[in-house]
């Protein structure tokens, strides 16, 4: 066995150091405070659960991607959470089953998976989110999308793009106005993913009827016009979805870019009629995601829900976060009462332990001269 | 296999629900803000590491107590952190090895172990702490003890007791003024733990010389007098420890109870000359702990350090935390600009999604009538 430096961390797991760790905490606070101001109440699920409870609520998670261990108490398999939304759904369906609806819950914490994917090498991520349980209406979607935007803006994020999708649109069309043979559906999905018009048309004449959806992708207003034209051709079969998207987009400010990709499905394995991804200028890959879904109640019935999750790590690593604090060096035998007063005014103080210490080397901008902070 | 309700959690793992989850977040913020105001900068280590890196820095941790998994990338064993202090030590010794000393770092997050112990059935705990790296002097101890007290008081904790200990005192006495045969040391420790004077005296005449340490336990000032009498009998052999304890105790306010148990060792496996436990009125078991220790540098040498960790879960479960927010119901078609203004003033708003909703049932104390909040 080769010797590995004792400070080395496993791939995809990392330390966050000053000042980025503080920026991360600051960003999480701003998001959570915004969400709380809209009435979302905090829940804190445990970091591990029984594997079967967790996996049954995670449609897209494979057991081998989870960090698992045998519980010495129950002899059952435990798994670390790879996602918190499923845990919040479990809480809503069990311990908070009798709480009045709509139920607004928020959460924040680390999530971990054993295997990363090529797109995202990190195996631990920080997740922050809000779930509105008891409704998947357009009004619920309007609230969720706008709270997500407001939370990111409160954290200083600019250049936000929201990409809307209709995760179950193809299923709905295939079961209704644009019938497809069951064996054709996956091929149609794949070519819509690839935006390959030629290959889509080549599947079958029935599949070719889905061509307008490729054109219904792009900047929101132009894409909506093409989706509306398709709807007209279908005799208004997707009227409610069109109206829903229009209503959700309406209150969103001019400073947010809106796009539409009605057949986007990656990352929307459990969403139904509505989904959205959040992007920010300068960051490849989404920084958040949300939409409508169903929670499985204890009796097996379904309850509608709407929510979003943010994965702010890329933002933090890019330096989003509060301004640097003012650091004040306190020499030996300083005025302790004055130092306490200055801390209450927002100073961070660094007290000397020995006569030799140099406040500037400890990155202080000022030192306490009697009762006054003096710049170095 | 019996059917287990899908909402059930493994023993020792639990959900924290409103309003306790919010109280938990509030308490953590107050502690972290206090610690930051004294110049401690945040670090965020990952939730999992290579098992050997983690265990080598955790003297008292058995591998079977850890949640472990084989890393599919490196084929090495990963372990979830059961403690964050060791991770902060690793960071100080590696990535921050060149940062100026004293280095002040803070941290907060979940820690988990696979096996709980009888005293503490919970397997996941929240840990918050601060470490001062580069000194284990009396001045460092004064700072750490007082920052810990200030942080708890900022979070509203009253009735605080600090119990001081001298973790390596017996080793120091046995190697010097009160020699013991190597095979006697463990027996002397055990009888001192049990405070059993008869059994201690029965070990040997050498062991009987440790009897005054049993009397040197209890309320700080009385216990110190007995420890000082022993020190006088030993010709001042523990002068520096006596002076250290006196200096640490001196600035602590009258509202804090101080006790001394000079031979207490449980939970102080890696501390050396100084340790302390924190208790609060009405809570059985300690809510925090700290002391002096050594960090192993990359070259194998040792660096002195001083720190504390809090485990605030019992406080939170008892309801410590901020006051309940004011919740304001927003009927359909409310004045959105006014609602935003009220949120900025500290209201939490709950927006109606349908005409049927009842704000009182959603636990709102007020509703927005035009531009004015009205009580229900």
From TrEMBL, chains A, B:
Binding-site positions, L-histidine: 83-85, 113, 127, 131
SUPFAM superfamilies per the UniProt record, alphabetical: Class II aaRS and biotin synthetases (SSF55681)
GO cellular component terms given for this protein: cytoplasm
Keyword Transferase: yes
Transmembrane segments: none
Database matches in InterPro entries: aa-tRNA-synth_II/BPL/LPL, HisRS-like_core, HisRS/HisZ
Keyword Transferase: yes
GO biological process, one term: histidyl-tRNA aminoacylation
Signal sequence segment: none
UniProt GO MF annotations: glycosyltransferase activity; histidine-tRNA ligase activity
Keywords recorded for this protein, A-Z: Glycosyltransferase, Transferase
The Class II Histidinyl-tRNA synthetase (HisRS)-like catalytic core domain, residue ranges: 12-315
PANTHER family: HISTIDINE--TRNA LIGASE, MITOCHONDRIAL-RELATED, HISTIDYL-TRNA SYNTHETASE
Protein name (record): ATP phosphoribosyltransferase regulatory subunit
Taxon lineage: Bacteria, Pseudomonadati, Pseudomonadota, Alphaproteobacteria, Sphingomonadales
């Amino acid at each position: 066995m080769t010797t590995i430096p004792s400070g080395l961390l496993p791939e995809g797991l990392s330390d966050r150091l000053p000042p980025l760790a503080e920026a991360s905490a600051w960003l999480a606070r701003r998001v959570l405070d915004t969400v709380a101001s809209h009435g979302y109440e905090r829940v804190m699920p445990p970091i591990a659960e029984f594997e079967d409870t967790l996996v049954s609520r995670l449609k897209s998670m494979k057991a081998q991607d989870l960090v698992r261990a045998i519980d010495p108490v129950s002899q059952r398999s435990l798994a670390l959470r790879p996602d918190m939304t499923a845990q919040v759904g479990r809480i809503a369906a069990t311990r908070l089953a009798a709480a009045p609806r709509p139920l607004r819950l928020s959460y924040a914490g680390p999530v971990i998976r054993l295997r990363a994917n090529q797109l995202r090498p990190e195996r631990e991520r920080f997740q922050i989110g809000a779930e509105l349980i008891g409704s998947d209406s357009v009004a619920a979607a309007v609230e969720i999308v706008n709270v997500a935007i407001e939370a990111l803006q409160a954290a200083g994020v600019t250049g936000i793009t929201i990409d809307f999708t209709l995760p179950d649109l193809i299923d709905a069309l295939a079961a209704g106005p644009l019938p497809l043979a069951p064996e054709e559906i996956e091929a149609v999905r794949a070519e819509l993913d690839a935006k390959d018009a030629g290959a889509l048309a080549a599947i079958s004449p029935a599949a070719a009827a889905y061509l307008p959806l490729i054109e219904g992708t792009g900047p929101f207003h132009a894409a909506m016009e093409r989706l509306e034209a398709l709807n007209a051709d279908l005799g208004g079969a997707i009227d409610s979805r069109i109206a829903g998207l229009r209503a959700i987009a309406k209150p969103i400010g001019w400073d947010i870019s809106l796009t539409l990709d009605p057949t986007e499905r990656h990352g929307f394995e459990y969403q139904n009629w509505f989904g959205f991804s959040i992007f920010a200028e300068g960051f490849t890959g989404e920084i958040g995601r949300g939409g409508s879904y169903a929670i499985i109640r204890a009796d097996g019935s379904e309850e509608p829900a709407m929510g979003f999750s943010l994965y702010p790590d890329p933002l933090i690593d890019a330096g989003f976060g509060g301004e640097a604090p003012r650091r004040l060096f306190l020499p030996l035998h300083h005025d302790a009462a004055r130092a306490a007063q200055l801390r209450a005014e927002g100073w961070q103080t660094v007290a000397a332990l020995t006569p030799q210490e140099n406040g500037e080397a400890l990155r202080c901008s000022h030192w306490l001269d009697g009762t006054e902070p003096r710049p170095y």
